[in-house]
Amino acid sequence: MKSEDNLLISLYHLVAKGRELERQMTRLPGFHPGVGEEAVVVGSFFGLGEHDFIAPHYRGALLAAHMRGAELRKLVAGVLGKATSYSRGRVRGDICLPLKFNTLGMFSGVLGNPLNISTGLALSSKMQARQGVVVTSFGEGTSNLGAFHESLNLASCLSLPIVYVCQNNGYAMSTRTEYALKCASVADRAAGYGMPGVEVDGNDVVAMHQAVQAAVAQARTGGGPTLIDARTYRISGHYSADANGYQPPDERAAWLKKDPLLRIKTTLQERGILGDSQIAEIEEAASREIAAAIEEAQADPDPTLEALGPDDLYCNAEMPEGTK
Amino acid sequence: MSQLTFQEAVVAGIAEEMDRDQRVFHLGQDIGPVYNGAMHSAKGLGERFGPARIIETPISEAAMMGAGIGAALGGMRPIVQIMFAEFLGLTVTPLACDAAAMWYKSDGQTCVPLVVRVLFGAGPHRGHSEDYQAWVASVPGIKVVMPSCPRDAKGLMKAAIRDNNPVVFFEHMGIYHGSRQEVPEDDAAIPLGKADIKRQGSDVTIVATALMVQHALKAAEQLEQEGVSVEVVDPRTIVPLDRETVLRSAAKTRRLVIASETWKTSDPLADLAATVAEELAGEAPIRIARVGLQDTPRPFAIPLVRAAMPGVQTIVETVRRVMEPK
Description:
The complex is a heterodimer.
Chain A (H helix, E strand, L loop, with lengths): L2 H23 L12 H8 L7 E3 L5 H7 L4 H9 L32 H16 L5 E6 L6 H12 L4 E7 L2 E2 L2 E2 H4 L16 E5 L3 H16 L5 E6 L17 H8 L3 H11 L5 H24 L25
Chain B lengths: L1 E3 L1 H15 L3 E5 L16 H5 L4 E3 L4 H13 L3 E8 L7 H7 L3 H4 L8 E7 L12 H5 L5 E3 L4 H13 L3 E7 L8 E3 L12 E4 L4 E5 L2 H15 L4 E5 L2 E3 L3 H11 L1 E9 L7 H10 L6 E7 L8 H7 L3 H12 L3
Parallel strand pairs in B: 2-3, 2-4, 4-5, 5-7, 6-7, 10-11, 10-13, 13-14
Antiparallel strand pairs in B: 1-8, 6-12, 9-11
């Protein structure tokens, strides 16, 4: 089998698993699912190295952390606040990820902070000359924040190794992109910072992967940051209980035809790389894996009050392992 | 030993730590060899360490704070200068909502060794004097340092850089280029969270930080002429606050005056009044009084500035009041 075929199969496996993860997690209350946006997540974070960092958008964060090595069951336990989660229930695990997988999450609910902080991760990568690159993603709504402007400008001034991926799903809660952004593409904003701005079909996982990898390669060799506008569509509601009735039916129907899972699957079938039965097998396996992780996490115990740690406010030790 | 100003002592502390640890670097606006930092707050560092470790940034405080936090997570030990405490507001969400919480929320898997430097205080600058210390002191997970003299400034800066948590380091402009003091040339850091008794006394305890320590010491000299023995306790760090030293002193004197340059409402030191009342008032009567900045925006004209904030005379009068028999 050709290596290109292998790449397509790997990407497909992840998009399929991501779909099941987002779909099944929607049943849990208060989750911010990303059905329809999996190709942006997979394309952005596939193929990175040991010294690279990611700071994913909260929508799709579990899939991103899993791609970096985090266990699904423990990630789901984090969403449920269980003792078995990576933080023993100290942080909401749907948006905050274990840093030991070089994956930065949100330690608060404030959008824009990860943009600022991931820019600092890129600064440390550059200073330590390990050639690590940072890939961070965020919604198009966040691209209106000062944090976006300040981060991109600073990254450009210091020529930092970072790739900014806008997971542009058309909606910031219920606010439509065309209302809140008066430029044709988020990528247009890159010109203001003197960095390349690239618009990509975010529902095409291969195109996403290629665009991000090109930007990563440029960043790794000292070429500085890139801004990518990944155009996709939020099939899910803003959170579990949001029925997104504000999406016009015609618009939604048109985007459903461009479903990223459907797209990669069709490519595999058309090229004869995978047959129908293999596809069914992969998707069923993904569904079972996610269902098992959720079931196990749900059965896991709540944290005991040992995790409360009233005196555990400061790090009094030498630098703990993993952050050196 | 060498005779240093507050500004020279802070810079000396930074330079020594940068020599000691290659992970330490400084990031800020105009801190390079052209300008040397606002009020010479980074004097000589740019020339000595070069642009790879003295990194100049555009005006973008939130990104600067984020850059410091992220670099700390990546294994560096950044010092971020936000220039004036007034600008802390621009940085509060990455600092207070995220960085302050990382050690606890990650269950000890990550920490943020970050020093944030800010200038503040009524002084020659005629502006930028607000400290807004309550903004950072009220959030668990941020340490807050406010030295009153060159010797403490150097030792506390060294401790702040060696600390594994976010530390906001307040540098008072009114004492920045003031009188020199013998400052040790050794490698000693002054532990954060440990108060210093700046003057021993037996009748009344004054707790004060930064410029107010100097005012309190002058007030103590004046009061000595009147036969009043004043103990001056300088907590040096507002968070963590050395309650034990204050309690020991107040248990002895049974009179406590808290002198702050910040607004009386939500003054972090005001919490000491509650602690002392809780711990000591049950045993025997105890007198407590507070002086602070009047609860309005800071006025501009010099006579108004002086009248709005505590001076030596305000402190003297407040001590006399708590000395009066009830």
